[in-house]
Amino acid sequence: MTTTAPRVSAAPAPTISPYQESVADYWNHEKNPVNLRLGEVDGFYHHHYGIGDADWSVLDGPEDTRDERIIAELHRLECAQADFLADHLGAVAADDRLLDSGCGRGGGSLVANKRFGCHVDGISISKTQVAFANEQAKKHGVDDKVRFRLKNMLDTGFETGSFRGIWNNESTMYVDLSLLFAEYARLLARGGRYVTITGCYNDTYGLPSREVSTINAHYICDIHPRSAYFKEMANNRLVPISVVDLTAATIPYWELRAKSSLVTGIEDTFLTAYKNGSFQYLLIAADRI
Fold first, then answer.
1. What residue stretches are annotated with the Methyltransferase type domain (predicted)?
2. Which of 11, 56, 163, 256 is the most buried (most CB within 10 A)?
3. CATH label of the domain that carries residue 158
């Protein structure tokens, strides 16, 4: 009688890679005023930039309240960006479920819930961000529909086909797009919508410029070429329905931020990269087929 040797199970794959661990550690300890003071204006804490024409009159008036006016205007511009992304999520019903992937401190999830009245799951690899965002959901009285979880966007563990829509707002540069879009193709129901707003380097410029490399180093990220988004979407059943170049629309935000107390030292780099054509700020919306 022969016996079969017991099967030795493989070691479980790490939840996140060593690189992602370094990113999580950064965001677990990050307390940058540019990510906090703007959210204090109305309780919607965003981790992205703004779009639209700035109201330059905020630079006028009493000097002692000048910075307060600038911060309020910067927040208005970043809220306009969040609303623009939500505009491209398509028709969302109150009983639909959305995924805010790389949710930061949760502002985008709250925007989507306020707009559609829907269920939103926000995910981040930063336990500090998740705890902060869940506290904000409670303060806004929507924690029955908006929940934040400590998860890896490359391997979420959510059920297949469980989401009507998914978005990334300036977070795709932290992951491999081939892995990311494969996971989203699994998570989205057929006909579901994916939206990203992202910085990418311009393929026609050639390789990443000095400014793009500086931004990578500043944020511990790896900015993808524009072409990579469309290549990996095509490989993973995501068909673009809308592409909007927001590069010109984000420049006023950066010019105004450079005049505020919230400067981080990266403002001139962004402005140079946008203006020399090496860096672009895009919205891409795609349907899952």
1. 99-195
2. 163
3. 3.40.50.150
Q: How confident is the model at residue 15 (pLDDT cuts 50, 70, 90)?
A: confident
The C-alpha atoms of residue 194 and residue 99 are separated, in whole angstroms, by 10
Residue 1 lies in a domain: no
pTM: 0.93
Q: Is pLDDT of 156 > 50?
A: yes
How far the first Cα of the chain sits from its last, in Å, is: 52
Task: Report if residue 4 sits inside a domain.
Answer: no
Please say whether the dihedral angle defined by the alpha carbons of residues 198, 203, 208 and 212, taken in this order, is positive or negative: negative
Domain count, the chain: 1
Query: Which residue, chain included where needed, has tokens 């028709």?
Result: 91
Query: Is 128 a member of any domain?
Result: yes
Strand positions, DSSP E, the chain = 97-101, 119-124, 146-150, 163-169, 188-201, 238-245, 279-288
Say if residues 191 and 201 touch (Cβ distance below 8 Å). Answer: no
Which of 273, 261, 288 shows the shortest CA–CA distance to 70?
Answer: 261
Task: Give the structural domain span for 197.
Answer: 18-288
Instruction: Report the alpha-carbon distance of residue 191 to residue 232 in Å, rounded.
Output: 18
SS3 273: helix
